[in-house]
Design brief:
The structure holds two protein chains of two kinds.
Chain A (H helix, E strand, L loop, with lengths): L2 E4 L4 E4 L4 E3 L1 E4 L5 E7 L5 E7 L5 E4 L2 E4 L9 E3 L8 E10 L5 E5 L3 E6 L1
Parallel strand pairs in A: 2-12
Antiparallel strand pairs in A: 1-4, 3-9, 5-6, 5-10, 7-8, 8-9, 10-11, 10-12
Chain B lengths: L3 E4 L2 E4 L5 E7 L5 E7 L5 E8 L2 E5 L6 E7 L2 E6 L8 E8 L9 E2 L3 E5 L1
Parallel strand pairs in B: 2-11
Antiparallel strand pairs in B: 1-3, 3-8, 4-5, 4-9, 5-6, 7-8, 9-10, 9-11
Classes of the chains: A mainly beta, B mainly beta.
């Protein structure tokens, strides 16, 4: 079945530091890939997505590139802010046996940015 | 305007009780989901409905029973609550076709079983 592996946290960075959160996946076919963010006390919200190989998703200074050859979708940001402190989930979407899309989430990586 | 809403936000109850959580979406989506998030933030899908039809049913105790009266609502009833049911339960919805991939989450219901 499909699976997503992401680096364990927590990740603690100083403000303006460079961020990388690693994500690799296992899937049949050609899944779409996502990063979701969960701020404290809230539900998850889509941060960015990429639907095919070599696509780059970007939003709010975050970006990730769909790398089929390495089955990876690493999240990066050049300069983090305190407001980026949250839990980040890598995910993929692929069809289940009934033909419906099923999203598989990674275990989440907590990011803490200190001033 | 809240896109996906859940009630209640907090639920504290005793072991053995029966409780329900309600979810509504005003996005016009056809597909709705229930997820369980444990204390380590691990997110696991429980159920999914498409136009009131059950399409995903993961390995979940049969004490959990989802009900979808129409495509805008998906409720979750839990019988005989156990300590291990304590978690945050998220409702989500998604659109049709490729739009089915992006999920829109509610704010969560924090369930504590004592």
């Amino acid at each position: 079945g499909n699976s997503v592996t992401q680096m364990e946290g927590p990740v603690t960075l100083s403000e303006e530091a460079f961020l990388t959160i690693n994500c690799t996946y296992t899937a049949t076919g050609y899944p779409s890939l996502f990063w979701y963010v969960q701020y404290p006390g809230e539900g998850l919200q889509l941060l960015l997505k990429a639907t095919k190989a070599d696509d780059k998703g970007s939003n709010k200074g975050f970006e990730a590139t769909y790398r089929k050859e390495t089955t990876s979708f690493h999240l990066e940001k050049g300069s983090v802010q305190v407001s980026d402190s949250a839990v980040y989930f890598c995910a993929l979407s692929g069809p289940n046996s009934g033909g419906y899309q099923k999203v598989t989430f990674g275990t989440g990586t907590k990011l803490q940015v200190i001033p | 305007d809240t896109a996906v809403s859940q009630t209640p936000k907090y639920l504290v109850t005793q072991m053995g009780n029966d409780k329900s959580i309600k979810c509504e979406q005003n996005l016009g989506h056809d597909t709705m989901y229930w997820y369980k998030q444990d204390s380590k933030k691990f997110l696991k899908i429980m159920f999914s409905y498409n136009n009131k039809e059950l399409i995903i049913n993961e390995t979940v105790p049969n004490r959990f029973s989802p009900k979808s009266p129409d495509k805008a609502h998906l409720n979750l009833h839990i019988n005989s609550l156990e300590l291990g049911d304590s978690a945050v339960y998220f409702c989500a919805s998604s659109g049709e076709g490729t739009k089915q991939e992006t999920q829109y989450f509610g704010p969560g219901t924090r369930l504590l079983v004592l």
